[in-house]
Each structure stands twice: as C-alpha cells, then as structure tokens.
Amino acid sequence: QDQLPIGPMIVPIVLASNKAPVTQITGNIKMHPLFLTITKINSKVHMKATSHAWACIVCMLMPEFIPNSKFHSILETCIWHHCMDIVHAGLKLAVCTGMFMSDPNNATQYCFMPLATYTANLPEQLMIICVMMSV
Predict the structure, then answer these.
(1) Is residue 59 within 8 Å of 31, Cβ to Cβ?
(2) Checking DSSP bridges between strand 29-38 and strand 13-17, what pairing results, if any?
C-alpha cells in the first residue's frame, strides 16, 4: 500500500477453481471452471448460492492426449497455465496500473485489484505449482 498513489481503493480478488467432468453429450470431457469474487463481500453472503457473489469467468476445456502418455499431465499443465495467463491479462493490468470502477453508489473509484487468495483442491494446487504427487 505504501507504493500506491494517495486515494485509490484496494479491491482484493479471490479466485477458486475445481476440475470437473462434463459428462452429458460431451464424451466425458474434463474442464476447469474458474470463479472470481472480491474479499470485501461479507463471508455469509459468499456462502449463499443465491447471492451470486461468485462469477464464473472462464470454463477451460482440457483436451485428451494419448492415453497412458508420460507427458499427459505436463501437456495439460502447460495448456492450463497458458489459458490462465490469457484470462488474467486484464487483472494483471489492473494490479499494476489500476483502473476506474463504479462503486455501489455509482461513484467512480480508482481501484487496484491484487490477487488475495486462490482456492483449489490438493491435486489442482499441485498442478498450479508444477509438482507431481508421488504414489
């Protein structure tokens, strides 16, 4: 916060994802939905599905590679990281330079949006940091 100009608002971002199979009419394709919310929303509101506090910003479909390939997980991880880089291009810009946004009172605020938390299950966390789980 010491490096920010005087007066901007900080809006910390929370991301969550979970690899999910899409089984109907798709041939069991796997996808990674990515959800976004902000930390300034009360946690009781976050937990209610009807509050629409979380927005699905992308559903990344994962292609099937050669079965039993030694490189399957490496290729999937590379594609996932490349897609995340594309999806987060605007967020990276908002973190570095800030952007003007409307608040609930329709007043314009200068905002910086750092990533505060990324929530995922253990296999996905290992994929994010490029580590293999030993059996």
Answers:
(1) yes
(2) antiparallel
Q: In the chain, where do the E strands start and end?
A: 9-10, 13-17, 20-22, 29-38, 55-62, 99-102, 108-112, 115-119
HSE (side-chain half, CA atoms, 13 Å) at 36: 14
Whether the Cβ atoms of residue 58 and residue 64 lie closer than 8 Å to each other: no
Contact 11, 112 (CB under 8 A): yes
Helix axis angle, 72-87 to 89-97, nearest 10°: 50
Residue type, 50: T
Tell me the per-residue pLDDT of 89-113, one tens digit each, with 9 for 90 and over: 888 888 888 888 887 788 888 888 8
Dump pLDDT digits (tens) for 12-69. 888 888 877 766 665 667 788 888 888 887 777 777 777 888 888 888 877 777 666 6
